[in-house]
Amino acid sequence: MDFDINKIREDFPILKQNLYSGQLVYFDNGATTQKPNSVINIINEYYSKYNSNIHRGVHYLSEKMTQAYETARKTVKTFINANSDTEIIFTSGTTESINLVAFSFGEIFINEGDEILISEMEHHSNIVPWQMLCERKKAKLKVIKLNHFGELLLGELDELLTDKTKLVAITHVSNTLGTINPIKDIIKKAHAKGAYVLIDGAQGIQHQKVDVKDLDCDFYAFSGHKIYGPTGIGILYGKEELLNKMPPYKGGGDMIKSVTIEKTVYNELPFKFEAGTSNFVGAVGLDHAIRYVQNIGIDKIAEYESDLATYATDAISRIEGVKIFGQSPNKSSIISFNIENIHHFDAGMVLDKMNIAVRTGTHCTEPIMKFFGIDGTIRASLSFYNTKQEVDKLVEGIKKVKELFG
Amino acid sequence: MTINEIQDQIIEEFSIFDDWLDKYNYIIELAEDVPVIEEEHKTDVNLISGCQSKVWLNAELVDGKIHFKADSNAIITKGIIALLLRVFNNREPKELIDFDLYFIDKIGLEQNLSPTRANGLLSMVKQIKLYAIAYNSKLNN
Known about the structure:
The complex is a heterodimer. Chain A contains 14 helices and 15 strands.
């Protein structure tokens, strides 16, 4: 399929919407992405025709819904090139995926005095669960620092990785700075020291090819709603041998083989980690979101977004008084910036009234803010359905902001 | 003027704007009217922190009336503070315990006072009420 931007935009009904005084310019894709008709329609169809709880019923609808849920698992497995379906756990999103690992992996692999290595650019979701685990197990949290380009100081990795390091939890792409981390190298180095690696893929999966076998990561977590799927569904990929060793962290239905009051035998993978009624329609939505991406081609998406991000970075940085945070040459389509002497909140409020949706604030990455000595940024996060014309509108908007507050 | 009379006056003033940017321009101008809190009063005690913008609020009871001084690091927030203080400043505590704040909605700025909008303004209104309650009980003792 050729990359036809007009046709692609037709697939996303929300983009046609008029807000205050004109068409929506949606640049908050880092927070959540919009949904194509194929996803919206399939959710509607499944609730209209097939809604029924999975894995339990013997009846037609339950069978149909279970099949769709398990097909979604296969789609995810193929998309990220996992070894088997059993390595794909449905969760509610990246946050739950990381918390699952922090609890279950932590339960048996982390002991007093062990070390967990994260980075200064992590989203709070990839900081707080590890702080909680460290507190619970009396382990130590260590941090890979940043440089002023918004890159990790990986030269220090050899020193930071010790015999006590049990896990490295690092983001694929920074949600604030856009930096794409060289995760394959980090994974290799961590493995050489005997540490396992979790990749927070919340901002990675939708922008580039992810091959968990090639990366050799032990865990990869991502959210459905950031890859054009519905909210409330996410994925934890984990290597089977690890997942098998980990105890479940939620107890309930579907995760058991047999229950007596005295003893419960847990179900096998992946069901062991999917207690309670799963978001099965969400899984079907995610399935169709991934198919949509596959149909266009993730490489084509990456190429288009890279071109658009370059155009936007160039245009925004030409505006006098604008400072961009995150200047790694290896960057995703996330552009964080501030305008001299203007508060990010003021800028966001005015851009909103010009029909432009950006995010302002700390983006749940307070350590990054502290590093740069700021209390927030304006973040434009671009997706493959955005256009250069929309970027021009943002540039116009920034100029208007300067005019108003200057 | 009563609290409601001032609120009605503000609604009247804003009724001439049909363009959002004109409205913001006016709010930006209003930001200069805020009785600004002295730097030494910009302490953590007086800080109402939102994750978007910061608001400082200081209160003093002078001759039975509460004098507020405030500031914010965001200008739109500061402009809205100017409006809030026009309504609430220099009043007896008992007036500020039970009031109906309706002008913000009427002039279309309600998103600024929603609980999810972390600009500190909603907390500021709550803080004004808390000061009023505290000073009121002080006056009655």
